[in-house]
Amino acid sequence: MNSFENRMAGLPEEGLTEGYRQKVLICYLLHTTKKKRTAAQLFEAIRRWQLLSFFELCDELQSLTESGHLTAEEEEGDVYYAITEQGKRTSSVLQTLLPRSLRDAAAESALALLSKEQKAGEGSAVIEKEGESLFCHLEIQDGTSSLLSCRIQVPDEMQGEQICARFLSDPTAFYRHLLTSLTEKEKNGKENR
Q1: Among 5, 34, 86, 113, which is disulfide-ready with 45 (CB 3.0 to 4.6 Å)?
Q2: Alpha carbon 50 to its chain's center
Q3: Domains detected in the chain
């Protein structure tokens, strides 16, 4: 990017600094999850990457709000941040400039945030008999539609019960692991296929 493109994207003339990478990450999370979030929710999504402390996150949220990239609304004692059109444009333009490792971290954080929102109790698991075969039918509902539905053939009823019980103990973990498995890169950098 040249200095004009940097200014149009809201960057300093020297380009993408560490502080701007953090801002892009925040905008990306709010843009891709399409919901307003509290600072605590955003921090929960990114804390394992150790990219910034909670206090640094709060400073960045304030800066992004002041620059017009985010709005802040107080609801029931919490401040919720939402992305503006300017923030969406910046997120879209700048995410291509982020290092691959940071883009992957941002995408994984967004997936984790979305999967965590799937409420417990939305999962169902039943053992079905079809001829001589047994299947576990696992399903996660998202309101009125099915978010995930799969059938797994099992050798016996005892294993079927174990699979169903494990799934029902945390359907969101199953969903999160499945999404991560389908979207992560292999250790050598190639996409899983």
Answers
A1: 113
A2: 16
A3: 3-116 (1.10.10.10), 123-183 (no CATH)
Helix (H) or strand (E) holding 171: helix 171-183
Taking the CA atoms of the chain, what radius of gyration do you get in angstroms? 21
- Give the C-alpha separation, 5 to 89, whole Å: 12
3's tokens: 């200095």
Sign for the CA dihedral angle at 91, 177, 142, 130 comes to positive
Rounded Cα distance, 13 and 1, in Å: 9
At residue 141, what are phi and psi to the nearest 5 degrees? Answer: -95, 140
Q: What is the pTM of this model?
A: 0.52
Q: How far, CA to CA in Å, does 120 sit from each of 115, 116, 173?
A: 11, 9, 10
Q: Are 125 and 138 in contact (CB under 8 A)?
A: yes
Residue matched to tokens 């001829």: 131
For 103-156, the pLDDT digits (tens) are 676 667 766 666 555 544 478 888 888 999 999 999 987 666 778 899 999 999
Q: Give the chain's end-to-end CA distance (angstroms, integer).
A: 33
